[in-house]
Amino acid sequence: MLVMFAPIFVQWLTIKNDPSWSGILNQFSHTDWHGFTCWDIIMPLFMFMSGITIPFALSKYKNGAQKADKAFYKKVFRRFFILFFLGWIMQGNLLALDPNQFYIYDNTLQSIAVGYLVAAILYANFPIKVQVGSCILFFLIYLIVFVTLGDNSYTQGANIAETIDKAVLGKFRNGVIWQNGSWSFDPNYHYTWILSSLNFIVTVMLGAFAGYILKGGKDTIKKLRLLLIIGIVLTVSGLLMDPVFPIIKKIWSSSMTLFSGGICFLLMALFFYIVDIKGWIKGIGWLKYYGMNSLLAYCLFERVMFTSISDSLFFGLKQWLNVYYPVVAVCVQALIVFIIVRTLYKLHIFIKV
Asked: Which contiguous run of DSSP H or E holds residue 70?
C-alpha cells in the first residue's frame, strides 16, 4: 500500500520544496549506499510477506496429506518462472524488444522468485530444524564470501557482490551503457543480485518462520511475544553488526538482512496485535482488495501508466494547479488501480501465480 499511495505525498512535497520537510522526504527515497530509510523496507517486506504465505499455502505437504510430488514441483517452478518473467517486464526492459536494453536479473519479483523457490522446497521436504539450519547456512556463506574473497570490502563500486554481478551478467546487467556498438558498466549503478540471492533466500525464509508462528497454536499472546522477541533480536543484531558489516540495501548485506528482517517481524507483531488481538478492523476492510490481488496491483501501478486518462479528463485543472498538476496524475493512477482491484474482488477474481 505504501508503494501505491506514498508517491502522492512525495509528489506534493517535491513540488512544495519546503526545506523543513526535507528530513521526511528523504525517508521516501532509497539510501544511496550505507544506511536505511523507510522506503528501503518496501522490498524486504514484499519478500517477507511472500514467505509468510508458505506455511499456509503449502501446509498439506507438512501434515502428511500429500507428499512433495511432481505436481508440487510443477507448482513452485511455475511460480518461479512467472515471477521471473514478470520481473523482466517490470524492470528487465523486455518490452523494449532490444537485446541491448534487456536485463536478466534486476527486480523485486525475481528476488522473491528465487527466495520462494528455495524456501518452498525446504518447507515441503525438511523439518523446521533443517530449514533454520539452511537459513543460517545461506547467511554464513554470503558473509564468508565477503570476508574472504571480498576482503570484507564494502566500497561502493569495488566489492565482491558487484564484481560477481559484472562477471556473470555482463552486458545484460542493469546499468550498462552502450556507445558506438560497445558497452561499459555505469559507475552509478550499484545494485547486486547474484551473491545477494543468498540473503534474498534468508529474507523469504524469515517470513516463512513468521508464518509458522502465526499458523501454529491458539495462544495469541504467546505468538505476539515470540514475534516481538525475534524482531528485537534481529534488529539489534543488525545494528551491532553495522560497524564491521555495514547496513547496505543495494548489496543486501548481512547486517541489512537481519535489520530489515527484524523490522518486518516487528511490523507483523504490530498488525497482529491491532487486527487479531484487539480486532481493530473498522475502516481498513478495503485493504483486502489489494491483498487478494497484490501482484496485479503492484504490476499495474508500476508498469501501466494511466496518464492519458488523467490528461483527457482533468487537463483543465492545469491552469489553476500549475506545478501541482502532476499530483492529479498520481492520484488518478492510484484511483484506477483501486477500482480495478476492487472490481475483481467483487467478482471473486483473484489473479495468482
From this structure: helix 70-90
